[in-house]
């Protein structure tokens, strides 16, 4: 199942998040967009647009996602955006995209 390929809306690799274990976080998708730090704008947007992750959105990558990805303190210099691109490419290749 493709949902197993991603565990966040934004493309962050939840399994690699340094905050997950120490904050007892269930993850973004599992918590329905309310991870350990509370409300997430990226998750709220994906949920409201009925997207499994940001890579499925017509606006990808939007300013909200870019702001998260390139945040000076907690960003990843675009790694989550690249992960979303790779996930989408794999899904398209296997013909499992959602309209």
Index terms:
99 residues, mainly alpha, 30% helix, 0% strand
Helices and strands, in order, run as HHH
Query: Biggest sheet: strands, sense, closure?
Result: none
How many runs of DSSP E, i.e. beta strands? 0
Mean pLDDT, all residues: 86
Radius of gyration over alpha carbons?
A: 13 Å
Topology:
Elements: H1 41-48, H2 63-69, H3 79-93
How is this structure best described in words?
With 99 residues, the chain is mainly alpha-helical. Helices cover 30% and strands 0% of the residues. It contains 3 helices and no strands. It starts with 40 loop residues before the first helix and ends in a 6-residue tail after the last helix. 24% of the residues are buried.
What's this model, at a glance?
The protein has 99 residues and is mainly alpha-helical.
């Amino acid at each position: 199942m493709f949902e197993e390929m991603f565990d966040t809306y934004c493309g962050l690799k939840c399994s690699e998040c340094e905050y997950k274990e120490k904050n007892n976080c269930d993850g973004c998708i599992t918590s329905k967009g309310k991870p350990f730090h509370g409300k997430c704008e990226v998750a709220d947007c994906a949920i409201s647009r009925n997207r499994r992750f940001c890579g499925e959105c017509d606006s990808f990558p939007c300013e909200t996602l870019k702001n998260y990805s390139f945040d000076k303190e907690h960003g990843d210099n675009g790694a989550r955006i690249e992960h979303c691109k790779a996930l989408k490419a794999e899904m398209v290749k296997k013909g499992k995209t959602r309209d």
